[in-house]
Amino acid sequence: MSKFLKIFEVSVLNRFEYRLNSFMWLLYSFIPTLASMAVWNTVYRERSYNAFGYTNNEMITYYFIMLIVSNLLKAGYDYHGVADSIKYGSINQFLVRPYDFMKYKFIYSLPENVIFIFVGIIPLIVLGVILRSSITLEFNYSIVIFFVIALVLGYLIQFLILFSLSTCAFFMHSITSLFMTLDILKNIVSGQVFPLSILPKPIFKILQYSPFQYLAFYPVGILQGRYEQKEMVMQSLVGFLWILILFIFSRIMWKKGLAKYSAFGG
């Protein structure tokens, strides 16, 4: 346990050295969110008060919560570094250490969220004050508990997806295009671009059981009071199942990759 605490401490110190970069990335994430709010404001001026099952205030609330959730669930996972380690053989130094590489990357990625809490709280408070007349939230003990569970599920799912894809570096010369494709797909099917519920029902039904909804749509929906307690229980169970599936898949990919791996230098 002490070695993982040390890894976490080192990662925190490293990231605080670049806290200005973290702050700038946070502000950058405001741009698409504010742009989406502006677009939907235009839509509501042209349509009725209620469009696609959301009022204007509910839509603004959706994007405000989504901004917070997407930053909290952003795994500070350096897939470029992992790919380069595999490609150039420097991953050897991790293979001989007394801890698992996946655990190391997981612990090392956690401080990204600590940085967000420290550097992001003031801009979010300012934005919340500006939008206070439009933001409507649902709070009770059940909602708070399931929201925290949803954040944990979302973070683990995000990490396992990224780790699984990074193991493709064992089999491919470059995985940059793979991750770029994932980012585009993830932003759409997770609900970061628009609420998934505005899609045709057959597509929405499928996405309700995908792992991607835990990265935005599901946790946001909890705080908006769009789920009954039994639905949140079911969604939590499905999320745990996805974590198990992704964990097994990532371990299989890692073992197959190591079996294929031939190191030169490093």
Describe this structure in words.
By secondary structure, the protein is mostly helical. The protein has one domain (about 1-260). The chain has twelve helices and two strands, in the order ααββαααααααααα. The protein has helices at about 1-15, 20-45, 55-70, 80-90, 90-95, 100-110, 110-130, 140-165, 175-190, 200-205, 215-225, 230-260; strands at about 50, 55. A two-stranded antiparallel ribbon has the order 1-2. Helix 1 packs across helix 7 (about 110-130). The longest helix has about 30 residues, at about 230-260. It starts with a helix and ends in a 6-residue tail after the last helix. The model has no long low-confidence stretch (mean pLDDT about 80).
Low-confidence stretches: none
SSE ordering: HHEEHHHHHHHHHH
Largest sheet: 2 strands, antiparallel
Total helical elements: 12
Biggest sheet strand line-up: 1-2
User: Strand-residue fraction?
Assistant: under 5%
Shape: globular
Total domain units: 1
Gap between N and C termini, in Å?
Answer: 27 Å
> Based on helices, strands and strand pairing, what is the structural class?
mainly alpha
Helical content band: over 70%
Output the radius of gyration: 20 Å
Sum up the structure in keywords.
mainly alpha, 12 helices, 71% helix, 2 strands
Quick synopsis:
The protein has twelve helices and two strands, in the order H-H-E-E-H-H-H-H-H-H-H-H-H-H. The protein is mostly helical and 266 residues long. The longest helix is centred in the C-terminal third of the chain and has 32 residues, at 229-260.
